[in-house]
Amino acid sequence: MLPLLSHQQTLEPVYLAYLDALEQSEYSGDIDKRYSARLVQATDNSVYQFLPQAVLYPKNQQDIQIALTLAATDAFRSVTFSARGGGTGTNGQSLTHGLILDVSRYMNRVLEVNAEQGWVRVEAGVVKDALNDALRPHGFFFSPDLSTSNRATIGGMINTDASGAGSLVYGKTSDHVLALRSVLIDGSVLDTHPLDAGLLCNPDNVSDNPLGQKLISAVAAVCREKRTQIENQFPKLNRFLTGYDLKHVWNDNLTQFDLSRILTGSEGTLAVITEAKLNLTPLPTERAMVNIKYDSFQSALRHAPSLVAARATVVETVDSKVLNLAREDIVWHSVSDLIQEVPGKVIDGLNMVEFAGDTVEVEQKLASLEAVLTEQISKGECGVLGYQVTQDKPSIEKIYGMRKKAVGLLGATKGRRKPIAFAEDTAVPPEKLADYIMEFRAVLDGHNLQYGMFGHVDAGVLHVRPALDMCDVEDEKLLRVISDQVAALTLKYGGLMWGEHGKGVRGEYGPSVFGDELYGVLQDIKGLFDPDNRLNPGKLVAPKHTGALYYDIDSAKRGKFDRQIPIEVRDAFPDVMNCNGNGLCFNYSSYSPMCPSFKVTGDRVQSPKGRAGLMREWLRLLEAEGVDVNALAKAKPLGLLQRVQNTLNAQRDYDYSHEVMESLKGCLACKACSGQCPVKVDVPKFRAQFFNIYYQRYLRPAKDYLVAGIEDSLPLMAAAPRLTNFAAQNPLSQWVIKKAIGYVDAPALSVPTLKQRLDGHASRGYDLAALQAIPEEARSQFVLVVQDPFNSFYDSGLVLRFIQLIEKLGLKPVLLPYKPNGKPTHIKGFLDKFAKTAQSSADFLNQVHKLGMPMVGIDPALVLCYRDEYREVLGANRGHFEVKLANEWLLNVIKDLPAKAPQDKQYTWFSHCTESTAKPNTAKEWTKIFAHFGAKLTAVNLGCCGMAGTYGHEAENLERSKALFEMSWQQTLAKIEQPQVLVSGYSCRTQVKRFAGYKPKHPLEALLELANI
């Protein structure tokens, strides 16, 4: 039986008292004390896991001032804080056991763009790519780049002094900070910007904040006094190290001082940055990328310096492991033409070289490099196998998209050991990189470890992720051994262990880099800003009187908790366990399919990463209770009366399972995560597993039974469609259905029905024996149409027109008998019923499959269910039947048909989420098909429409469903003439009809029109 689950992680009394006082104050932001919210913020993109006391979401700077001012009172001086943005840190940078200050939910505005002077003023929570969206119309961009740019915030970039591709040209974040506004530990506000040295003589000239005056004077004095030591001690690198930038607070000739340089890279340990003024870079007028292919990764590394010498803007490298993982990912369809194989050769390394600038300059550099590469290939030099050039900006962005996804792709490595981040951002002088990497590889090879490598070879930064199993205690010990070895190795080569991603828990290595005296200066500076060690304590340095850092390489890791889950349970929930925290599901863009529930709520609990984390804890708590989860999944529900009693007591009795349910029921089951997530986390899959177990203890809502039974009841309702529609569509019935069941806007059955439309048609009257009697050579002329519940009963006209299209193409359609697909039951977690339905349909389709005639389905979600959920649930019992999508089938058909002359017909195709993520080539396929029919088809990239099967019909989801439609679909549809709009998903067409007021055509209907011209 599923027991009541309690986590025992109650809030400390001082934090409860503080939060109660904060709620009574003028603080206007959100305060989230839910265990689920705390768990989601307990991890980032690292191996660490620190459970915070609560999460604060301030709405403005005043809220942060109120929070810190309250904490400055004697009663709350033990309350600690850590500011957080996108949560993309790779070494626990913003993790804490205190309070999280998450500025990403509300403080994410672009406040002012001054194109004339080339600067922008933003709040700390704005996402980097969102900022560039706002700057693009002005002809500028914020140039420091990073792989997590679609979810990393500017505040996070400032706090880690982030940089990435092209840093030799574009610099680091600190090179672009003109001014900062921060809240200090006492709740006061400090504005920092460059100051002339002469102003420092009078504190009133530098700030009206008394604490600010003290900080500016003290830091300016010590950095000037220690100038020689700083110059001698600090590594000579393009990248800089977080914590703290003593070197650049003064300019080279000591005429100007800027405290912002101390705050930049301070990882939230000195102040809470709320606003930034940043300088901007003009967008280049011309860009060109050269993808150079090598016989080995070492060849790529050793060739890089010559590429830098060619004055390239960017030189990025990936190894064969990353390339091979990319080939298996959804991203590959977009770049395969740009990184083609070299006949007879194996590509084991790739350098991506970009030139950006004015047209003449780019063309000259490109021509020069091409001449050198061509000669090297002809002579067999430098391991160069070939190269490809693209000057198409969208194609260049696709290449970068593949490179940016490399971090997550490594998590898709097979086996229990996964490449992880802990020593992945080392930096050495670029001219020493190849030799350094050879030694680095020797260290890893000495431990018999696999690893992946990619990075910015132009800056001497290479991301190396060794594969370890953090559930294995010995591997966790090995992490410490390797960390120490790598730290020593980087020092040997005059480099840094943390060259790009911040230091986080690696502060223990600080003294060996800075030396004891300068490390003491850092401690003094921390003490000046934060004497009681309350801002992100345990990171970088601690004030001298507060003891040693209490976070280090050995701090609590996710694996400590995950290993408490039995291996057989981990294997039964692989999607839950495989999430590596890369956070791609936090993509800010409303035009990206993943993840609609996060986009519409802004709640990280409502995301694939959040859901996987909550499920891991659920599995751990069940094991702590001695429950065999795999046996529980097969158990029968409790008796009705017991479930009624448990449901009635749900408000009284805490059960962690309710928090998991709250997260999972917000999922739209669109399956975008299963395609777009680098490690293919399939939330709908483990959602169904959870529902199946949860409802053994509690009552199911009535709407679940309605959805699960719809496929079986539709044939009965279609026997009297007008009567059914009258009974269900009148205002009184709709009111009753909404109130009693929680279902809204149910579609009307088709009138006439499909049976009536095809009365007497040759496609009806399926007869297996008659089909078996058809000679083998004649069977290619037949097409078997696989019915689905939605199109056959709610849009029968589409099925009719598909049959007419088949006939128009000179083929013979056969309408197969209607068989329930089972997807609605799977979505709602009726797994036993789904298994029975799937097996029945699979048996039938396997029988038909033996005919050797193509089987084609119309709705993408239902067709793809045959391939995914059927294989998952039935295994070998699924058989080998294949149901093609209409576009897949048509691609083969048009090979034997003459192309039609071009016509003045244009269409725009809107894809279904499941379709576009599971079959990323679908847009290209439809475009090719329409071109064959003489028409032009344009595909648009959009987010979720908000319907997703039955999600949008559930009353509790109505507002979110509408909001999702408005995010990307509504404004895009408004720009296109209605007859040109084509939508392949039934649920998407239903949503357009509901909120845009018209029913768009399916691509098949447009093709029939073209065929009849």
Number of strands: 28
Strand content: 5-15%
- Euclidean distance between termini CA atoms: 64 Å
Q: Which value, in Å, is the CA radius of gyration?
A: 30 Å
Mean pLDDT: 93
Task: Describe the protein.
By secondary structure, the chain is an alpha/beta fold. Helices cover 43% and strands 13% of the residues. The protein has 45 helices and 28 strands. A hairpin with a 4-residue loop joins strand 5 and strand 6. Helix 7 packs antiparallel against helix 18, helix 35 packs parallel to helix 45 and helix 40 packs across helix 42. The longest helix has 21 residues. The N and C termini lie far apart (64 Å). The model has no long low-confidence stretch (mean pLDDT 93).
Topology, pairings included?
Blueprint (H helix, E strand, L loop, with lengths): L12 H12 L5 E3 L2 H6 L13 E4 L3 H11 L9 E4 L14 E4 L7 E5 L4 E5 L4 H8 L4 E2 L12 H7 L6 H4 L6 E7 L5 E4 L2 E2 L13 H16 L1 H7 L22 E2 L2 H4 L8 E8 L1 E2 L3 E9 L2 H13 L4 E6 H8 L4 H4 L13 E9 L1 H21 L4 E7 L2 H12 L1 H4 L8 E2 L6 E2 L5 H14 L4 E6 L4 E8 L4 H20 L17 H20 L28 H5 L4 H6 L1 H5 L17 H6 L6 H17 L4 H5 L6 H9 L7 H9 L7 H5 L6 H12 L7 H17 L2 H9 L1 H10 L13 H4 L10 H5 L9 E5 L2 H6 L1 H13 L3 E4 L7 H5 L3 H19 L5 E3 L2 H8 L1 H6 L8 E3 H8 L12 E5 L2 H6 L3 H11 L3 E5 L17 H17 L6 E3 L2 H11 L6 H9 L2
